Please model this.
Amino acid sequence: MLKKIFFTLALAATGSLMLKADEGMWMVNAINAAIEQQMHRCGSRLSANEIYNADGEVSLCDAIVSLNFYCTGSIVSDNGLVITNHHCAYADVFAISTEEKNYLEDGFWALKADEEVPMKGSQMLLLRKVIDVTEEVEQYVESEKAKGKTAGIRKISWEFEKRYKSDSPYEAILSSMWSGSKYYIALYQVYKDIRLVAAPPVSIAAFGGDIDNWDWPQHKCDFAMYRIYTAPDGSPAEYSEENIPLVPRKRLRVSTEGARKGSFAMILGYPGSTDRYSGSAKLSLEQNTLRPTQNELRAAKMEIMRTAMNADPSVRLKYSDTFFGLSNMQELYEGETECIERENVIAAKKKQEEQMQQWIDADSSRHARWGTLISDLERTFAAITEIEQVKSVARECLLRNCEMCSASQKVNNLIREAEKKGVKEGETVVGLDYSNFSDKILKDYAGLDAALEKELFRYSLGKFYELMPEEYLGEFQKEIRAGYASTDQLCDALWEQSIFTSSEKFAAFAGEPHTLDEYRADPIYRIYKELNYGEFNRIETKIEGEPGHSALCKEYTHALYRMRLDKGIPQYPNANSTMRMTWGKVKAMKGKDLPKGVRSYASGILDKYNPDSYEFNLDDRQKSLLEDKSCRGKRLPACFVTTNDITGGNSGSPVLNARGELIGLAFDGNKESLSSDIQYTPESNRCVCVDIRYVLWVLREYAGCGYLADEMLK
Model:
């Protein structure tokens, strides 16, 4: 957005407000006449009821699915066909891949119904209704208080979810908005027979890899397809061969007209989490203390993984899913750190707090509640800086991305299993039925590479001892370190002595008689066991006093919400995996060093092609098709950018034109606006989308799945 556009509009329950275009992850049930009017000024031809209808009439929301609240998809046929991003389906494609048939590298295409693969444990949710239960919750809390009881969010959620799903075929989920200022129940139809239909190879879906991630232009055809199945009567059901494809209430129509510069673009989806109601004190701790260390540690672990994966295709297959998730988040956090500094976000937060303090001081009742809130936040976050860093170091060094070494959890589970079976202290443990435990451990080992795990552990253990203050080390952690000249020698010794560093050692040990204490004596287990998060949290509670930082942050959100309400400023709650709507325009990025176009083309893939680079390589069929003159001459669109306000969870969200037709899928943001989860950046914010015409081309020309393209276009 090159300049900010404001319109004075009357919004229900909030008076006369100034509503800004582009910014906002608006709750679909809050789309009223004022928002509808603003959208029309931006080019929309849709009414509010066509997007979401509280009276149960069919709307666009009836075609939008949540992939268990980690991604978004949309129904694109009358036979339950769902399209989302490939990176949302990555774990499923990884799960069915083997060294003999690597679907990540080769692609997966079901050419007929019986080739569609059921995804065990997967589910998709369709929103049916959103209900404002704020008054009911407030009455319930007061009633509990009158009985001398407290009602926290878990108790409230349990009570109201039970209440609303007791006489309903739907799943009920309570959501708190603005830290308890408002409460909503969402009713969902939950489908559990989900089958994978199509997924292109990563050379198509993720062309450019993490090198192009958060960048522009991109050329990823980031899509995958599932199909929802139901019982023969149309009701949700577990997998059965008798099930039939879902006949949806609504499916999205596909437009092949494309995204034109300046045209309206709307996104419906399930954004996961934002923190735009946080204050400067919390952000300063994260930005100046926690993130630098986190980014350093994660980047180093990524490089260890990358080296091993590049050297051995079998290691790449084993770790591709782990590396994919780690690299995506790592780039996000590094980019976010840079953007917060470049955009002076902390300074902007402080300015907001100056305005808030003036608003607080202007009213005696507000001053009585929040008079010292901002200074209390500053004092508290300064006090807990060290212990927060301690917790972060423990988590990043020894609990994250070192799978084979999670001995503490493994042993604790084993001990609990033994105790359930009546094994007491001093008694030996022989031949337990480890049905839910050791079998799982041995299966985990099959997906790991011992050499890589040892290198990850070596690095992590060294950084743990380097970064952890001496006073927070456990007695065994100090004792065992003192016995070796270096952490490298310590790592070698631990690797040799521990039963958890290979499946063979674990299986041999577990098959012989041992007491529970002998299990607890494992040296890696003892190191992990002394990472006492409970004690860390008790230290933090003592340091910060009452109220603690969590309670203060909650009050800050309440105060900011009330101030904006009082001043007539339109606002939307932080993203929390509830369905949201955002609108904007197809618009190029701004800046002398940035590409000016709104669209990339498939011909750009050949410009980037490099057979020596995993990220920019192509298989022979891709290369041949792209080199064909008919393809180059048609200037096949690949991706485009919009100003839509999105975040994680929006992956796979449909990008809709002014008539509500599907023109693309959201799959990425841009590195210039990676601080937007904390504060929206209107000048630089962009959403990167795959053009639906590129998807159709891949289905027809590359995959030979024209029947899927035809199904989408019916």
